[in-house]
């Protein structure tokens, strides 16, 4: 468990003492972040540029928070001045942002937002489930107060554990609450002790940790550390660029227009004109044994989504997907209208 903690500190680029892995998938970490940092009646602001902001808002509503959303158009992102305006209007205790919005394929710029949250005395909560290890992210330097990810994306470990970290500022708020968090299982007081992050001399039984999943998480963090974060970021970026070039050659268009806002791990392709996207994805599944998804939330019907992350982020895998797409475009029904 101590090895896992230092592995997470490295991949998150943080020195936070309160760094651990939640037993559960990415959703569990989302709820751990929100349930611990927000009390009923408090104001929460969620940036919505896909389904993850919507879900964070839903979770905060469930615990009786006053929730406001700041909505970006599908495939787009929010500017710092839009964010500042909303922070000054709603005065939230927490601002939620998905760094890698896997439903639209957007990599949301982070620079400057941490400073704004600090200025408005608000905690900056970032979802990096789809981006961690695939795109640059510096928790401490970027002023992120709560950051979480999942084990099954770039880390390539089985699903079931979710790294999370809380800054000192976040801990100040979490450990000075008036009410207990709604979840016993996700109560940071308990989790902190279980993971040896508090001052107590011994760790108490809280729940049965998924130990086999912890071993695989430990190994996946070691693999990423051995490669080095910068190398992993570069590898994902160059595989993604190779993919974009190949897609353009096939006459396909990318959904996210601004290059710097494309998520290297999840590529959204504008659903090809004249085709039924469901026929394309099922043809590829049947013929090539590859799973390509349709859209999710605001991108339903608009895009095809391809996830290439961790060990799947390579030129060879990209070529495999391009060949499958080319074959599908040649064989699926194309309407002339
Ligand atoms: N956030 C983002 C950005 C995601 O892509 C996902 C998973 N697709 C989640 C949260 C939720 O993770 P999980 O499915 O592991 O609960």
Automatic annotation (TrEMBL):
Homodimer. Belongs to the class-V pyridoxal-phosphate-dependent aminotransferase family. InterPro entries: Aminotrans_V_dom (IPR000192), Aminotrans_V_PyrdxlP_BS (IPR020578), PyrdxlP-dep_Trfase (IPR015424), PyrdxlP-dep_Trfase_major (IPR015421), PyrdxlP-dep_Trfase_small (IPR015422), SP_NH2Trfase/AEP_transaminase (IPR024169). Substrate binds at residue 305. PROSITE patterns: AA_TRANSFER_CLASS_5. Its cofactor is pyridoxal 5'-phosphate. Residues 1-319 form the Aminotransferase class V domain. One of its GO terms (molecular function) is alanine-glyoxylate transaminase activity. The modification N6-(pyridoxal phosphate)lysine is found at residue 153. Its EC number is 2.6.1.44, 2.6.1.51. The keyword Transferase applies. Signal peptide: none annotated. Keywords: Aminotransferase, Pyridoxal phosphate, Transferase. It catalyses: L-serine + pyruvate = 3-hydroxypyruvate + L-alanine; glyoxylate + L-alanine = glycine + pyruvate. It is an enzyme of class 2 (transferase). GO terms for cellular component: peroxisome. The keyword Transferase applies. GO terms for biological process: glycine biosynthetic process, by transamination of glyoxylate. SUPFAM superfamilies: PLP-dependent transferases (SSF53383). PANTHER family: ALANINE--GLYOXYLATE AMINOTRANSFERASE, AMINOTRANSFERASE CLASS V. This is Alanine--glyoxylate aminotransferase.
């Amino acid at each position: 468990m101590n090895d896992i903690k230092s592995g997470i500190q490295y991949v998150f680029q943080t020195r936070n003492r309160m760094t651990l892995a939640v037993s559960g998938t990415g959703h569990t970490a989302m709820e751990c972040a929100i349930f611990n940092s927000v009390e009923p009646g408090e104001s929460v602001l969620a940036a919505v540029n896909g389904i993850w902001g919507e879900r964070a808002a839903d979770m905060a509503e469930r615990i009786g928070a006053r929730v406001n959303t700041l909505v970006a158009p599908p495939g787009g992102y929010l500017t710092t001045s839009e964010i500042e305006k909303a922070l000054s209007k709603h005065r939230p205790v927490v601002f939620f942002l998905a760094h890698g919005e896997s439903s639209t394929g957007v990599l949301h710029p982070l620079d400057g937002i941490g400073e704004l949250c600090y200025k408005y005395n608000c905690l900056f909560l970032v979802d990096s489930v789809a981006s961690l290890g695939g795109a640059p992210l510096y928790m401490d330097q970027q002023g992120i107060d709560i950051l979480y990810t999942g084990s099954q994306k770039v880390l390539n470990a089985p699903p079931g554990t979710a790294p999370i970290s809380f800054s000192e500022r976040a801990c100040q708020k979490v450990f000075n609450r008036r009410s207990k968090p709604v979840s016993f299982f996700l109560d940071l007081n308990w989790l902190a002790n279980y993971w040896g992050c508090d001052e107590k001399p011994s760790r108490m039984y809280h729940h049965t940790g998924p130990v086999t999943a912890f071993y695989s998480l430990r190994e996946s963090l070691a693999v990423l550390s051995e490669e080095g974060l910068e190398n992993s970021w570069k590898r994902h970026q160059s595989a993604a660029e190779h993919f974009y070039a190949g897609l353009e050659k096939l006459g396909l268009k990318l959904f996210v227009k601004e290059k710097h806002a494309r998520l290297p791990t999840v590529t959204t392709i504008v659903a090809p004109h004249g085709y039924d996207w469901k026929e394309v994805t099922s043809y590829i599944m049947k013929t090539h044994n590859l799973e390509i998804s349709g859209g999710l939330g605001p991108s339903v019907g608009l895009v095809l989504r391809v996830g290439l992350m961790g060990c799947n982020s390579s030129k060879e895998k990209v070529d495999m997907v391009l060949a499958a797409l080319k074959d599908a475009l040649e064989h699926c029904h194309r309407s002339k209208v």
